[in-house]
Task: structure prediction
Amino acid sequence: MNLHRLALSCTLFATALSLSAQQYPKPNSTQQAGIDKDNSRHFGDSPLDPGPLADASPTTALSPALTPAAINAATRKVADWELARAQPTWDQIWTSGVLYAGFMATSSQLNDPKYSNAMLGMANQFHWQLRGRQPNQDENVAHLPGADDQDLAQTYLELYLLSGKKDPSTIAPLRADFDAVIPLQTLRPTDPRIPWWWCDALFMAPPAWVRLYAATGDHKYIDYLNLNWQRASDLLYDKQDHLYARDATFIGKLGPNGKKIYWSRGEGWALGGIARTLEYLPKDDPRRPFYVQQMREMAAALAALQETSGDAAGLWHSSLLDPKGFPLPENSGSALIAFGMAYGVNNGILDRATYLPVISRAWAGLLRHVYADGRLGDIQQTGAEPTPYYPGSSYDYGIGGYLLAASELRKLATATPVASTPMTPDTVANTDPAVYAKLHLPSPANPVLRNLFLVGDSTMRNGNGDGAHNQMGWGDEIAQYFDTSKINVVNRAIGGRSSRTYISEGHWAETLKLVKPGDVILIQFGHNDSGPLDDADRARGSINGTGAESKEIDNPVRHVHEAVYTFGHYLDQYIKDARAHGAIPILCSLVPRKIWVEGHIERQTSTYRGWTQEIAKRDHTGYIDLNEITAEKYDALGEAAVEPLFGDPHTHTTVAGAVMNAESVVSGLKALPKDPVAADFSAKGKVIKLFSAN
Result:
């Protein structure tokens, strides 16, 4: 009986939505012609009767709860519907480029290679080339690919960065296209406009340029990005309203209600473009504060314009300042606004308490416009300004925005569970491998110099190493103690990794490609090795001890059959591989956790600290007892003084705590019988005393 009432209630709600949705402006004949063209080009479609909404039945309803399971279910429903619809007609135009970016995020989020494999098939189909270079192209397509065409490069480059074996020839044609436009100060020699003359371009082009930098290490791509975003901002960004004009023709232009025209799609694409750019922009780039500040300004302006009632509740109207003239929500813009805000919260740019309610309302609003079959409706057709559309209209770029939003929401749910879920050290630290799947690890800044490589987990490099969530790894603070005109300090640690998964996921092999004779490698693991060998979420545990034991498992995360070995076995492998490349390996014991026992910090003795020391002794390699060095400092300071050195209950340090651990490493290096970096310390490093046990 209760189920019957619930079904009836849902049906009445869906009917009410359908009736109210009839009260929207209809496209005129010219606008309908544009819709028909979009449909004929397979961007999507706009049926007058798209069927029932998912909320119309308990069996198809999607939960708006910000939990991993609920978000994953909502993601897969829409992603699978769109993949089946779009795959037969892959294209290279900008609309597809946004969708492809969404599929890449979905593959990482759901840990399902189906979506990234589809993208690899697409890349191979087009020979990893952009639209502007293809034969038999439309006569109106310029020979040099502009932002509309560069959009596709985001997916090509993510595939390249995530591949185990990187062949530079794969992206050589793409790179040639980008190189060709660098000298151009205008869009094209015969076009006086700047390259990114409309705000949508800020999502299409800049994230591709920053990924090309990540793939090649060539800073000219960052220089081009920073220069041309500034030019676009100077032209289009309203410093009072903190929103972008769609293009220069909209500056000073007013809508029928006498207010400025700010298009939600354009704002969403600009905010989403900032997020996609910051993903790969070096954290020390001098222009980074510019993007961070603009994200904060735009997010605040857009939060104030979020609809609070009606069919569009939680979302944004096509014309942001004219909700009466455009009553429907516009979901290609709304989705990317939600994505940008969620990225900002996940990365410590936006305040969680302020924006989590905004993001939650937006996600719930998007789900109310998902249909029973997986269609996401209320996506405006292509164009240059707010225009009428149908509630059932669904186009690929809007789906891409939805999938990007879902991916960031999934990270948000993992990093900061909803209030009803108990907070644990693991969820605070956010060591879910999916969160860091796109993390691009640094390469040596100066290839002429020798290198000090750092290999480890989140206590060495937390997240993106930018201090998000008030947490910082010591590896991101140690460079100041070295003279970087003599040695590169290259922190290639990744949060959530164990001694096993840093190897099995291919990160160690990628690091070894950069190693040359005379380099030094600091290795620290143990914080994440104690989990189950075949845990469904991480599968990162190693077998206890230093012996030769092994166990065969079916890895539920990587979907492969795997032999798992002891913690000591993996440390042996790091040492042997490093020496095979002519490098000097040094093992570090894990940093101490903030656990007090009778007034003293608890030391690791018989487990990972002891096993690390045992392997160092057995393999005759350098050993820094980081656990003991820092623990002695904590003991001397006392509980009250140590408290602010941690950004979570007991594992991850603040910047101040990271500095203390970095200094402990330096003092441990100096205590080695033969310090391999003795001549490489900076003035700051030279004053640190060598460690002498009490």
About this structure: The longest strand covers residues 450-456. The two ends are 73 Å apart (CA to CA). DSSP finds 25 helices and 13 strands in the chain.
